[in-house]
Write a structure and sequence with these properties.
By secondary structure, this protein is mainly α. It has a domain of 76 residues: Alpha Horseshoe (Serine Threonine Protein Phosphatase 5, Tetratricopeptide repeat). It is built from eleven helices and no strands. The longest helix is centred in the N-terminal third of the chain and has 29 residues. The chain is elongated. The protein starts with 6 loop residues before the first helix and ends in a 6-residue tail after the last helix. The relative contact order is 0.05. InterPro entries: DnaJ_C3_Co-chaperones (IPR051727), TPR-like_helical_dom_sf (IPR011990), TPR_rpt (IPR019734). One of its GO terms (biological process) is protein folding in endoplasmic reticulum.
């Protein structure tokens, strides 16, 4: 304005300055809401700011944290992926994305993201520790599925037992392992055991189609047609 004063430019500059003040006020409110653990309010405020400041990596990381606290992991992943692109060498974002995928039971995507972290820093302790865990689990699941394709159902059951021992703390892996054990027992004509394991899965996930189909096959083996 000093170099080229005119009414139009002054109006535009004043509008932008007012908007800037407003965004700073919203930012202070968002941080305050986050610190008070009012994550819904923080998300709402951050939505307003990010509608204008689209390329702010820190704000996206903060909103991702709020989404995680609110139990909306897929939205957190979206913000963290943007933050990973916006900020150079953002190992923390890749680590968090990998952790979320792992907690959701998507071991393959988790492995892919943690590898991105290690490409940036091969000595990253958290990423390396997670990488070892996910790689081991991934290998066991791949091996079990290979046994199933070959019709080696006993070997597959043993391998899925190992999966449950490798990851006892994330329930989704135990449920998926039991679902596949139920399938193997049914295919192996071990009807009584199949019905027992399939029922365990269906108590956790009543609409699990695979477990329903495999339990039905086991009931047929036992001539339990009504069931």
């Amino acid at each position: 304005l000093r170099s080229n004063p005119s009414n139009n430019e002054e109006k535009e500059a004043q509008t932008q300055l007012t908007k800037s003040d407003e965004l700073q006020r919203l930012h202070s409110q968002a941080l305050s809401a986050y610190q008070q653990e009012d994550y819904k309010a923080a998300i709402s405020l951050l939505d307003e700011i990010l509608a204008v400041c689209v390329w702010d990596a820190e704000l996206r990381e903060l909103r991702a944290e709020c989404y995680i606290k609110e139990g909306e992991p897929s939205k957190a992943i979206s913000d963290l992926k943007a933050a990973a692109k916006l900020k150079n060498d953002n190992t923390e974002a890749f680590y968090k994305i990998s952790r979320i995928y792992y907690q959701l039971g998507d071991h393959e995507l988790s492995l892919s993201e943690v590898r991105e972290c290690l490409k940036l820093d091969q000595d990253h302790k958290q990423c390396f520790s997670l990488y070892k865990q996910v790689k081991k689990l991934n290998k066991q699941i791949e091996s079990a599925e290979e046994f199933i394709r070959e019709g080696r159902y006993e070997d597959a059951i043993n391998k899925y037992d190992s999966v449950m021992k490798t990851e006892p703390d994330v329930p989704v892996y135990a449920t998926r392992a039991k679902e596949r054990i139920c399938h193997c027992l049914s295919k192996n004509q071990q009807a009584t055991e199949a019905i027992k394991v399939c029922t365990e899965v269906l108590q956790l996930e009543p609409t699990n189609v695979n477990a329903l189909k495999d339990r039905a096959e086991a009931y047929l083996l036992e001539d339990l047609y009504e069931e």
